[in-house]
Every structure is written in structure tokens, then in C-alpha cells.
Amino acid sequence: MDEIQLIKGCKNNDSRAQRELYNTYARKMMAVCLRYSNDRETAEDLLQDGFIKVFSAIGSYTGNGSFEGWIRRIFVNTALEYLRKNDILKETVELDNPDILKEPDYSALEKISANELIELIAELPPGFRTVFNMFAIEGYTHKEIAEALGINESTSRSQFTRAKRLLQKKLEEL
């Protein structure tokens, strides 16, 4: 099935199309869930919840934009709902003054693999990791992050800056 047939089948509640959609995107979406939860069991729960939402909302997909991007946004929102509901973002502290220290040196990134970098990101505190994922990986703006997480835009910037510094420190320790 091509993507258009797959979407049409899912809109018609065709279990074969739903299974194929799951098999096509489960691995990528599991990676998204793991980036936000940092716990395999929770990530698996988020994966299931995300696909339930995808199948429930697929009728609203209009064909504008990337289908994978549409799915990814559902999974990111599912992960964010989980983080908010379970107060996991409590380490995201409101700050009046954003950090003004110099930018980290990224030359150490050239010495590690993508998997090692993902492992380092997973070690970040939840608030830092969430903002880092949303800004650096998902491409959200700080304004969008602030709205999604219920924080100030300056806090989003600060959390991202602190995440980068912490990653730099971890890279230097390698």
C-alpha cells in the first residue's frame, strides 16, 4: 500500500491498513517516545496511546504537509501530556533573567556517534531534556515550547542553554 491508500484504509477503520501504518511508523515513534520518557516501559505506553490518538484523529488529516510530521506531532503532544500530568517537568524552574554565559564549544560532538549523543541527551534532567528535544530535534520555537509547557519563553531559552552546557560538560568528560 502506498501512503495515500494507507491513510484511506485507516480512515475506513481497515485493520490491515492500521497494522501496516503501525509497522511503518512504530520504530520511529518509539524513538520519539524514548527521547521524552527516558524509560522503555513508559515509552511503550506512550507509543500505544499515540497510535490510539492517530487512529482516532486520522479523519482530520487533510493531506496538507507531511503525514509523518502529522503523526510525529501527535506523539510529541502525547509525551508532553504525560510529562505535564505526572509533574515530571517540575525541574523546569521559572527564571527572571535568562543565562548570559557564552555558548558551549561543540567541537567534542565530532568525536562521538549519534547513539552516544542520544544517550547523553537521555541523561539530562527531564525539563532540560524536554526543551532540548522540542527545540533542537523537533524544531519548535521557544514561544511554542513556552505555550506547550506552560512556562515563560525566557525559561525555555534558559533550559535549552543549560541543557547545551550540561551536554558540553558531559562531552568533555568522555
**Helix proportion:** 55-70%
Task: Give the termini separation.
Answer: 45 Å
Strand content: under 5%
Q: What spatial form do the alpha-carbon principal axes imply? A: globular
The average pLDDT score comes to 86
Radius of gyration: 18 Å
CATH homology-level superfamily of the largest domain: Winged helix-like DNA-binding domain superfamily/Winged helix DNA-binding domain
Provide the CATH topology of the largest domain: Arc Repressor Mutant, subunit A
Keywords: Sigma factor, Transcription, Transcription regulation
InterPro entries: RNA_pol_sigma-70-like, RNA_pol_sigma-70_dom, RNA_pol_sigma70_r2, RNA_pol_sigma70_r4_t2, RNA_pol_sigma_r2, RNA_pol_sigma_r3/r4-like, WH-like_DNA-bd_sf
Family: Belongs to the sigma-70 factor family. ECF subfamily.
Protein name: Sigma-70 family RNA polymerase sigma factor
Supply the key terms.
174 residues; mainly alpha; Rna Polymerase Sigma Factor, Chain: A; 68% helix
3D structure, described in words:
- There is one protein chain.
- The protein has helices at 3-11, 15-37, 40-57, 67-85, 114-122, 126-137, 142-149, 153-173.
- With 174 residues, it is mainly α.
- The chain has two domains: 3-86, Rna Polymerase Sigma Factor, Chain: A; 89-173, Winged helix-like DNA-binding domain superfamily/Winged helix DNA-binding domain (Arc Repressor Mutant, subunit A).
- Helix 1 packs across helix 2.
- The longest helix is centred in the N-terminal third of the chain and has 23 residues, at 15-37.
- The N and C termini lie far apart (45 Å).
- The relative contact order is 0.11.
